[in-house]
Amino acid sequence: MTAPQLYLLLRCSGRFVLKPGQFLHDAESAESLASFTRRTCSMSVFSLFFDYTTVIAKDTKENCSVGESHPMLNRFKDVRCFDKNRVKVKHPDGTHDFLHANYVDGFRERNKFILTQAPLEQTNEQFWAMIFQENVVIIVALIALDDKQCRRYMPIKNGTTVNFGAYTIEHHGTQQIRDTYDATILKVTNSCALFGWRWSKWNASSARYLLP
């Protein structure tokens, strides 16, 4: 953003004032971006945190009944999996098709991305079934594969393999880029090649263990 553009943005008229019981996400479309930004910047860290925790404590209007019926397959209670756009992947035992994963639209492309939690020990095979089923070519991980925050669901050394049911994942090399993320080439079950990008500088508590 150039200086003139920034100046015009900050010069927009109007002031966004929250009404009692309103939160930042309640801003109306008629409010200017500048007034909303000024309001956000004027809030203390505590106020922003209170806003966030109060909003996530509210029940969403979206139906999340499938995920709620499988509580052991959800890492966090406050990260819901909407029924309307969830990715259906059959569990190996055939009892259900729930995996904590949702389709997300891209720019002019419906269901371009998938947001999912890092696999649990009992969903590793189902996770790779989704990768295979949805023809995924890139995995972006915002969490370290150190067995503390997340069980290892892919090999981390060149030339090694891991197996999850019908899926074998082979490691074909990793390159660290700018001390920020690792780029890894993986091959799945002799037919599916993909890239894995793992951000090493990301705050894991903020990432909420999401893997788009």
TrEMBL record:
InterPro entries: Oocyte-zygote_transition_reg (IPR052782), Prot-tyrosine_phosphatase-like (IPR029021), PTP_cat (IPR000242)
Boundaries of every Tyrosine-protein phosphatase domain copy: 74-212
Pfam families assigned to the protein according to its UniProt record, in alphabetical order: Y_phosphatase (PF00102)
Top-level taxon in the UniProt lineage: Eukaryota
Single GO term (MF): protein tyrosine phosphatase activity
UniProt xrefs under PROSITE patterns: TYR_PHOSPHATASE_PTP
PANTHER family in the cross-refs: TYROSINE-PROTEIN PHOSPHATASE DOMAIN-CONTAINING PROTEIN, TYROSINE-PROTEIN PHOSPHATASE-RELATED
Protein name: Tyrosine-protein phosphatase domain-containing protein
